[in-house]
Amino acid sequence: MILRIEDTDLDRSEARYEGQLIADLKWLGLGWDEGPDVGGSYGPYRQSDRLDVYREHAERLLKERKAYLCFCTEEELQREREKATAEHRQPIYSGKCRNLDPAEAELRRKDREACAIRLRIPEHPIKFHDIVHGPVEFSNEVVSDPIILRSSGMPVYNYVVVIDDALMKITHVIRGDDHLSNTPKQVALYEALGWPVPEFAHLSTILGADRERLSKRHGATSIANFRDMGVLPEALVNYLALLGWAPSGGTREIFSPEELFKEFSLDRVTPSPAVFDMEKLYWLNRHYIKERSPDRIASLARAYFSRLVGDHSAPETEDWVGKVIQMLVPSVDRLEQLPEKAELIFNYDAKAALASPDNAEVLAGHNTDAVLARFVFKILEDECAREGRLTPEQFKKIVNEVKAETGAKGKELFHPIRIAITGSHSGPEFDKLIPILEEGSHLQLPKHVLSVRERVEEFAKARGK
After folding, report:
1. Which domains does the chain have, with CATH numbers?
2. What predicted TM-score, i.e. pTM, was given to this entire model?
3. Is residue 170's pLDDT more than 70?
4. Which of 216, 262, 323, 461 does the annotation list as catalytic?
């Protein structure tokens, strides 16, 4: 595998973009045998460092009369395009400079008259085989003689990739089907240079849920976006592999990278557009989050808690955050959701809990007042709760006493108690939550975590009972 940096478009090429792309590929788990950062015997691997190579081959094509000098200005070319459009013709180059005497053209170039170099498209249809689309043919009438070297001396993309692919011995060119229309120009270049044409495979376009081409309006569309969201690289690789491709036999959807390497083949790629389904990606991500080691997930998730616990935490705080993450992770699709899930720990609001429409039915229950009255009384009287040292065992004992005294059980018992402690009638198991609240209340955090007793006191005050 070769990593090549295609940076001849100077307006869009900056070192920071290259750095980001390399970081993204490494994050995905993709490595390469040759590239700008590791070297190799077919370098240099940045196109901006290969300009002499491109000019040498352009001059060779000129000498062999397979290319020619074009002196048309941008204004002339624009007028040609407008005229062709008005006459309902393909807006392709007219070939105005095609028949210039080569010796005369060379003299004009020596006199520093601005000129580009154009490839002479042959007078026959251009055919090639595509692994995904099958036999493809383009009439030469619809393929304009393409510029390969601009008047500025900079080569164009469709030219440089052919030179690089041939010299780097690339066997398969696999890319999006939006490049299909570029391929006849590239095939013509291979033929003009006398080089073998590689195998082409043009992959189906990825669409958004509205079946329009995937773009920023559909949400995250870059690797960095997904990483920032807390999507695991193995989940993203797994999902991307399923877009426009299906494994042989069965309906299996979860594959490790090693299994994908074994299973994947281009002949099972479909030409039909693939729809990017965020929910499917989140489903896969949830699977991988649950499968991975708690230590790895905790190390990835800590970055999302810096706002809540500070950037530089004491060891006891780090340990506590690990417990919070472990408790909340089963309920998230992506790691960026963790701070929102942690609101029940950091932002307890008794008044909001009482006013929430989601809690109304529970709070109106016929046994709710009795359950809450006994529970509040017992928590406020409990010595361990008073000191912020309430254990899951002691909490369970108190709940069982409330159950015995009120006759409430199941949701009728637990939902009012949960609202009093967390503000919601659903949430993490009490066995995990109680120690986290009690321990957190003793830590030095940017926002104080209320203990169970402090929460129950606020709840009782807000109810006025």
Report:
1. 1-48 (no CATH), 50-203 (3.40.50.620), 216-292 (1.10.1160.10), 342-463 (1.10.10.350)
2. 0.85
3. yes
4. 216
